[in-house]
Design goal:
The protein is mostly helical. It has helices spanning 18-53, 58-69, 85-106, 117-141, 146-155, 177-192, 194-203, 214-249, 257-274, 279-291, 296-304, 326-355, 363-384, 392-400, 406-417, 422-458.
Length: 463
Amino acid sequence: MLKRRPTLKVSRLRTHHPVQLAFLGLITMLSTWFLLIGAFLLLMALTGTLLERLPISAAIIYFLIGVALGPYGVRLLTIDPIGNARTLELVAEIAVLISLFTVGLKLKVSVFDRVWRLPLRLAGWTMIVTIILVTAIAMLTLNLTVGPALLLGAILAPTDPVLASEVQVRNAGDRDRVRFGLTGEGGLNDGIAFPFVMLGLGLVGLHEIGENASLWLWRDVVWPIAAGIASGWLCGFMVGYWVLYLRRVHREALGLEEFLVLGLIAFSYGVALFIQSYGFLAVFAAGLGLRRIGHSRFKSILAKVAPRLQRPVRDNSGANETPETPANMANALIDFNQQLERIVEVAAVVLLGSMVSAQSFTLEVMWFCVLLFFFIRPVAVALGLIGSRTPSTQLRLLAWFGVRGLGSLYYLMYAINHGLPHKEAGEFVNVVFGVIATSIVVHGISATPLMEKYYRARGDSGR
């Protein structure tokens, strides 16, 4: 009899189809992001009051968390700033829009008030001098030609007082020159920097500016600035006007301030883009226009168009405020918008922290930061405020708190997405990230002690 040969039992290895592997990878990635987002929101909720008591800005803590999550930490966030420029531009754009609308709502001052002269000078002359000086320094220290150097100056021109909240206005009636000046400057120059970014792109061949910059002057300066401010203010005022009318006359449109905030930001931004103007200025102006509903001049208008008014127009303060009063509506919008602003600001700062690299803190970049904070900003403020009779104490604070933040991040990504060559893009990322990170740290550490010293000298608490 023939013996059967023993058969070898080979266990078949279970393999996954490529689609299954891709699906498992997607699930893993989503679970990681959900864990990160959930942990951040819980951290903000549980440590919010603690961070407010710290003598440093909360932005420093969130920035360090981003560094810990990035390539120099546990490597949970590994983002290529150039490869993901479109996503980063969108994140920075949303954060800037929400911040600008919040700033506009906080500034309950007539556009014709003399107090606006200071932020207008800072957002105008001071910013122009800053761009000129940064252009010159960048050509000398970073070996850039005039086009890229001017583009870098325009990217670094906007200030962002939101990242150092101690220097913002405290309430709608805050007329302190330092706080109002820095807050108003941050609201204005995020949009006013746009023409100079476009000029820089034009000088590197990525945007048409016309002969002798004539096309740029009309298409990128005069019309977009004027139309953006006007359209935004009208959108804010008219939306606020009709909301109050519906509330007082028909008892409609009550509550849901969240939809009103998001809707007005999107609507004013969309209108501005449709008429080829600057959306940042429009959203800031929309906040200002909405806030002006509470002015006494407009109360009489509301009363005339609401003959069936069941309640009298009440005072803007105290327990008499109802959902139908302008002040209460504005305060409700500010409360929601500040929470939304905090979320997007934290997200952007954490992402920034995860993207910084050693190249952002080279000796060359740090020397550039020193020149920007200790020479360029003070000189630009001094020249921009010539003849303003600003006291020396306030002048020093205004010169120091030129906080760089999300506006610069947005314009950097905007330039990259509009064709900035890869070599210049890499250099710009290193410089801009280094400047923003340094600003978050040095201004975040110095804001509380310097402002408290300023309040003591004035004999008030700054509240």
